[in-house]
Amino acid sequence: MLTRRFFLAAVAVALSACAGAPVAERAAEPAQAGEVRVLTLNLWHDKGDWPKRRAVIVEEVRRLKPDLIALQEVLQRPGLANQAEDLGQALGYRVGFVSVDPPAAERRYGNAILLAGAGSPVQEHKLEPLNDYRTAVHVFAGDDARRPGVDFYATHLHNERGGGAIRQRQIDSLLGFIDATARGGRTILAGDFNTDADAPELAALRARYADAFATAHPDLAGDAARASTLNPAYLPAQRIDHVFYDPHGFAVTEARIVLNQSRDGVWPSDHFGLFVRLRPLR
User: Cβ(142)–Cβ(116) under 8 Å?
Assistant: First the structure.
């Protein structure tokens, strides 16, 4: 008889295939002039076989070549280098890591942005309510001949299924942070929101920004199984990892689920990644 874990892993592979995800590894298309490539991924901290998971993540990021990466559940502890800094060093990205844990603490847990190219120093913000230990991080990816200026924000919201009121407070806090820090460039917000993009608590966010995956895949609205960013080998199918963008500044060229294949029985994370290509409109 199949074990439950084996069965769930088989289901995850089948669902990935149904969603149009390639079984074979797929190279990124050549970058278009001015386009911005974004990847968001919940790292699942040090669960499972991190060295093997790390190798899969590094290889896929090299293939996708994102300009901006949002990472959640980033961990550092004795015996484990800061995962974002480690990945950034391996991939040649600048890294901005934020945590509610004191900078001198041996164990720190938080969110990070990885940036290819020039950008501002990182700004961080603790989200309301402060006892939920949630943060947001911002960087302005500098305006240059290749890419327009982008205000990029990464976050990870409250995780309890019935915690919509808390997530709404965090969205209010996050939007205030954006208002105080955005430099007037095009805005992109990515991360693990721990809820559907059309959830009531995200209404204020949707009033300003568009959901990249839903824009690219209107046919998958409400189809959690085919659009899940949660790995069904570990979690019930649901799309909770999102990239929101300024619809006045960008058009979506592509949005797809990535990092959704196992290698030798090792999955990159208990989440899949979301990769989005955005074309500037102005």
Answer: no
